[in-house]
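Incident log, structure service

09:12 report received: a user says their structure output differs between two submissions of the same chain.
09:20 pulled the input from the user's history:
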Amino acid sequence: MRVRWERQRVTGVGERTLGEQAAGEQAVGGQIVSEQVLPGLSGLVRSVRTPEFAGVVFHEVLAKSVLNRVPDSSPVPFRWTVNPYRGCTHACSYCLHGDTPILMADGTTRPLAELKVGDRVYGTERRGNYRHYVPTEVFDHWTTVKPGYRVTLADGTQLIASGDHRFLTERGWKHVTGEVSGSARRPHLTIGNKLMGTGRFAQPPKDTADYRRGYLAGIARGDGTVTGSAAASARVAEYLTGDLPLALPVEWPRTPTDEWRKGLLAGVFDADGSFGHRILRLPNLGDRALTAVTEALTAFGFQYATETRRAAGGKTCVRVDGGLVEHLRLFHLTDPAATEKRSITDAAIKSTARLGVVAIEPLGLDLPLFDITTGTGDFIANGVVSHNCFARRSHEYLELDSGHDFDSQIVVKINAPQVLARELAAPRWDRAPVAMGTNTDPYQRAEGRYKLMPGIIGALARSGTPFSILTKGTLLTRDLPLLQAAAADVQVGVAVSLALLDRDLQHTLEPGAPSPQARLELIRRVTEAGLPCAVFVAPILPGLTDSTDHLDTLLSAIAAAGATSVTATALHVRPGAREWFAAWLAREHPHLIPLYRRVYGRSSYATPTYRTTLSNRLAPLLRRHSLTPQRFEPTAPVPRSAADQLSLI
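09:34 re-ran on a clean worker, output below:
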């Protein structure tokens, strides 16, 4: 390890969150000293940052063991693995300010910072040409500290988010910030982009004596009769006996306040109001109630119509117009107790709200920001559809959050070569094959700093243990002389993962990985060194990379690079990865969602029919390019966890 990394020591231990700790970092000697502390991570030596890895913290640990046994139930053809790193810097994270109101599944709103795992919120589901609101569950909730940006829309909606956050626009998902070229290129918001949703949520009413009096007036209609739902009855009981006790009948004011008006509209809705088929009605209004209701609606700028012919007994029905935008505004502004009558489930996300972007401004501050994982992959933040980040469960056992931390909190087993050498020297070790690259890539960028693989390769070779390496990282070329020497003593396998040649598709799917061209050059270097090089054409994506033309072109390039064999397999989506991929597909290729539903349904694996079709398509192509096929397909489904039961889309 370099001397300059030795200087970056942990300066304190505490019980703050990772976000709070990040805010407490200090510059020392031009480098950053991190005070990150992970109570659930045994063997922690120090946590460090370096300018070459902006936004990433490396947690250096002394591991007790690095030789890991694969469960017998796993369909993979090996039983031992070595993974010197946990976490990956390739993914993005998406965060919003904690005060951002989130639309709950009962129609109310709650600040993002106050959400909890298990809460029910509204997300969206694409059906045909439109997305529709659907209830979904919060699976994860976390915080981080990042530079904040203010996004302002034409209707006055303001959103505070990180530059990485994504919102749904008429042209698909877009990050808050990005570039049009270079390594930072990605779809991002520009002035004039229109976001999807209803626009900013109205502020809820204050629980004042005036609001309570208005609510009771709306419930009782001035005649002392209380009607409505159980929730309405409970609220009436609270208002009659609570901290601000009132009594029936309630006196109607000559000059009502805005809080009284809000209470009145909430009470009238709870008593007899209805909301169905996207129509909101306040029926059974006598002359006095009709005058008060229409005056209140006018005061708040609502459009409405009277429907006298629909009401019996000489009473009038008022219909509130304006569509979902105005109906949600009424619900949030007045807060009726009968949340069961406020459902917007299955409503299409289309409105005339003025949601064009008019400004994107850096705040110049690092802010505590929050995000959640939901079952639909999105949620409704202050009236607009917001993308969420997804759990990567390999980090959860460390008590790290499964969103931003997976990308930025990288665990490094700095003593991996020494521990592995000790484990391989044990009398009970039977020199079974060891696979590397099965969880995280051993040649990810961090390996350029920590240089753990040379020691690991040496320990395996000295012990007589055959091993294989699967990687996308071109850094492997650094260790080719070591691999050549090891191959003289043990069987060495090298495999490169390469599933496509389209640079644009690869950039959206694997934004941090080396380009397809760089990986073809890696294959050439490996074979020129006299080592066999297999290629994993995986994952093959239905509808995107599984056509005969695409596979023929790809296999031709792989053969020209000198690959000795090919393992081709369709995408399989384990829990954690499946949610991320589903959101990516919905964002980038929504027209393929019906196909993926047919091919995957609720399973992590493609159907046997699809796998057979793909195999039949590949066989003649492999023969044409003189590539030896190798099979790596699960022959039976592995036991599924509860999270596996989630639909792919």
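09:41 both user submissions now match this output. Likely a transient worker issue. Closing.
09:42 reviewer note: The longest strand covers residues 130-153. DSSP finds 18 helices and 29 strands in the chain.
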